[in-house]
Write a structure and sequence with these properties.
heterodimer, A: two-stranded antiparallel ribbon, globular, B: 134 residues, alpha+beta, 44% helix
Chain lengths: 186, 134
C-alpha cells in the first residue's frame, strides 16, 4: 500500500452490520459480494457476504482509507486472514440484540487479535435498546477477561456519523502510537 | 449441505449421477462440486472428500468476487473462471438459469487439456441446469 493509503478491516458475526457500515461511509459505490442466504433457519437474513466488501473513505488530508468487510459466517473464516493482511486496524461490530453477543465478542476478539496482531481494534455494538447502554459494562468485562484494552461504543452503523466515530477512534489510537502522523476525516 | 436448499432427494440423486458420469469419462478430474451461491455443498464427486465443505465455501467466494469484478469492469455476468496452478487447474462455472443460483467447480490434474475440459464442463453445466429446471 502506498503512502497516503490506510487499510481498515470490519469484522464480526453475520448480521452485525459490516456491509451496512461500509456502505454508510464509503465515498465510492462499495464493492459487495452479497448473495442469497439459503440457510434462513440459522440466520434470518435475506443476503449474506461470501467474500468481502470494499469501500473507500477520503480524508481531508488526501489520505484514502480502504475499508474491507469480512464475511461473518464461520465457514468463510479463511477470508478473515486474507482480508486482514496489511490492515492497520480492525473495527469489530457486534449485534447487541443477539443471544450470543458475549460469546461472539470472545470468539471474534480472539480471532482478530491473533490475525491482526498488535494492530489497534475498536468495538461497535449495535441494536442496543434505549436504556441498555449499561450493557457495555458487561462487554468491557468480557474484554478484560481476555486481557485486552479496547474502546467499546454503542452505535448504529446505518448512521454515517456512528461509523465515522469508530474509524476516527481507530485512527486516534494509531496516531497515539505514531505521534508524527495525523489524519482528519473529511 | 444447506438444510433449506430446495433440491429434492430425487433431483439430488440425478445430479450426483451426472457428476459421477462426468468423472468416469474424464479420468483427470479428481473433484466435482456443485455449490449453492452462499457456499453450501449441494452435490459432490467423490462424495466422501472431507474437504468439500471448505472448498464449497471457497468456490462461492471466488465466484462472487468474479461476478463483482465483471460488474466493475462492465463485462456483464461472469460465466466461468479458470485458475491454472502448477499441478492442475480449477474451473468454476456459474449456473444462472435455475433458482437458487449455484456454481459448478471442477478440479483437475495437469494432464487434462484445458480446452477439451472447458467444452466438456460447459456441456455438463447445461445438463445440470436442465435437471434443475425439470
Amino acid at each position: 500500500m502506498s503512502a497516503g493509503e490506510i487499510k481498515i478491516v470490519f469484522a464480526g458475526p453475520m448480521g452485525a452490520g459490516k456491509t451496512t457500515a461500509i456502505c454508510s461511509v464509503s465515498d465510492v459505490p462499495p464493492v459487495s459480494t452479497e448473495v442469497a442466504n439459503t440457510d434462513q433457519a440459522a440466520f434470518a437474513k435475506e443476503l449474506t457476504t461470501v467474500a468481502l466488501d470494499f469501500g473507500q473513505l477520503l480524508m481531508s488530508d488526501g489520505t484514502v482509507v480502504h475499508l474491507y468487510g469480512t464475511p461473518g459466517q464461520q465457514r468463510f473464516s479463511f477470508m478473515w486472514e486474507i482480508a486482514a493482511r496489511g490492515a492497520l486496524g480492525v473495527v469489530l461490530l457486534l449485534d447487541g440484540s443477539s443471544a450470543t453477543v458475549e460469546e461472539d465478542l470472545r470468539t471474534y476478539l480472539r480471532v482478530f487479535c491473533n490475525v491482526a496482531q498488535s494492530q489497534p481494534l475498536v468495538i461497535g455494538v449495535g441494536r442496543l435498546e434505549p436504556g441498555e447502554q449499561d450493557r457495555l459494562i458487561d462487554f468491557h468485562a468480557v474484554v478484560r477477561e481476555l486481557s485486552v484494552n479496547v474502546p467499546i461504543f454503542n452505535i448504529d452503523v446505518r448512521h454515517r456519523k456512528d461509523t465515522l466515530l469508530l474509524i476516527e477512534s481507530l485512527l486516534l489510537i494509531l496516531e497515539a502510537s505514531n505521534p508524527g502522523v495525523q489524519h482528519d476525516v473529511a | 449441505m444447506s438444510p433449506k436448499l430446495p433440491v429434492t432427494a430425487e433431483k439430488l440423486s440425478a445430479l450426483n449421477l451426472l457428476l459421477h458420469g462426468f468423472a468416469t469419462t474424464n479420468a483427470e478430474v479428481h473433484l466435482l462440486l456443485l455449490t449453492s451461491e452462499d457456499g453450501f455443498e449441494v452435490a459432490a464427486h467423490p462424495a466422501t472428500d472431507a474437504r468439500t465443505a471448505r472448498i464449497a465455501a471457497m468456490s462461492s467466494s471466488i465466484q462472487a468476487l468474479s461476478d463483482s469484478l465483471m460488474r466493475e469492469v462492465g463485462l456483464a455476468r461472469s460465466n466461468s473462471l479458470i485458475v491454472e496452478a502448477d499441478a492442475g487447474a480449477i474451473v468454476v462455472i456459474g449456473l444462472h438459469v435455475a433458482k437458487p443460483r449455484m456454481s459448478l467447480s471442477i478440479f483437475t490434474s495437469k494432464q487434462q487439456l484445458l480446452g477439451k475440459l472447458l467444452w466438456a464442463v460447459r456441456s455438463l453445466a447445461a445438463s445440470i441446469e436442465a435437471e434443475l429446471l425439470r
